[in-house]
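Quick start: read one record
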Amino acid sequence: YQRRVRGTDPSDMRCVLYAHAALTVAVTLAASSRDTPPSFVNPAAPLIWDTMAPGQWSDGTFVVPLDHGDPNNSPKLTLHARGRAAQNQPAALGTVLVHCGGPGSVRDCAERILAELPANISNRIEQDMDVWSIDQRGMGTDNTPNLACDRIWLPKQQQESYSVSDFTDCECALPDGTPLLDECLADMDPGNETQVRSIYTAAQQRGETCYRSPRFQLLDARNESRNFLDYMGTSSLAQDIDVFREAIGADKMSIYGLSYGTGVGATYASMFPTRAAQILLNGNMGSSGDLLQFGEANAKTNSQSIEHLLRLCTEQPSCALHALADQDPYAAWDRLMAMLTSHEGVSAKDDKGAPFRLTAGHVLGVINGMMVGAYRKGVEHGVLEIIYGLLSPNTTTHIAAVEGVLDQMCQIDMPTGGTSVTWRKYSICIGNSQVGASFLPQTSVIGVDYTGRYTTDQFVNHWQRIREDFPIGSTAYVGCFGGIASWPATPTPSGPLGDPSVRALVVGNLYDPSTGYSWSQEMHRAFPSGALLTWQGIGHTLESGNSVNDPAGAGACADKMYQYLLYGHLPVNGFTCHNHHKAEV
């Protein structure tokens, strides 16, 4: 995400808050004279649309307290939203919030998701359902304070060597010497304890520096400082959503949550069960709130999805990995990991002609990222093509594969647009997460949603067990769990997720590499009067349409999902949509 940071000076922040307060008073006075109840098209304070009309998208803002538990004294936040009113008003099918996950979903989410739906479903929604999405606290281009930092640049002077601080001075950047560390990846040898300790120590240091940053300190009505990062949790977001619901005069709110968005929907339904309409949860977060379980589940799901793809490859003689000297996909994978962690290693030449080493963490990071979209045509083939290329006896094919992985991992998004590949020109692997432009949303939100903080020794001890049980997923564990387990903000977890009165539809993929299938089962147990719907495929969240590799199986589940979203019709609990697709090998 690229976001501009504003309001870092406390006096500027006070001016912003006074202006918001004045605007809120003016809107409230105007609303008090209305003759009609508030609606999505004509809401009450604190929601203001730019130009809302039936059938049209409009941006808008609404004001919420930083601390919903102390609304009178709390600093105020202006959140940004985008919505589309149904063409037929009032909307017969109610209002739905679409949340794309992350954390980091922004206000274009609903617009993007609706554009991908089957035409008959999309048309019905356009006719009879109000839809909206939100720039979650700290996210998007306009929210203040903002987690993003645009103080990112390329070194102007040629140097003998480079560090993270040569590319940024952002407070939330990782310290110099920290390897690439991001969601579900860590640039490391999966079996190197020294590297694990160093990464966790660096994550702790980054967390403390970021948490103390002046841009996150807000003054309340008593002139006392509040840390914005203490109020980033999903329970705060759920209360923000309810402010919006009240402003449009709706008795209930539907939520379609994908990935982390399932946590948003589940939290809202748990906190406000009588105000929850259709709660559609696709690709589910765990409902326990225990950070140790979160870290282990990430390692497990990453490992199992890759192992399943290797199994599919083993069953099909046409799979390219059979053509390698190993003649067995599992043996080929083991040889690749051995090569990457050996003394000689695997490398490509940078622009200076020096060898630049490819690590197991790089390879696992690229593959894990691709497996998220493995339900799409060609993705499985692309993963196996990378493995084949890295093991290929053909030098040209091998080098191209090495360079391809490094190019994907070692690049940064520039605030002015475009990307820069760092390993070639600067002989160092610098990525978005090191310069403070990535994974901070996940760290700051999940870091307060989940309970548990761990010392370096505790972290390493748990990693050792993970490495034994799920070796493929051990770097994902370090990447996902490292920053969160050392985050300095005190957790503010919502209550145990679930309510027996909410008829939520929980949708899970059997081989989801990001949010494991066991989490979908767990989520359904939290809402026992709803239903669990399963697709047998690989990939994160259920998608349908011509771009997926199993349009029949995934489509059957998607049809049931949309019938629930529109009309509240639950499928038979435990219904499984069979995967009719063989891996593209």
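Confidence is low (pLDDT under 50) at residues 1-32.
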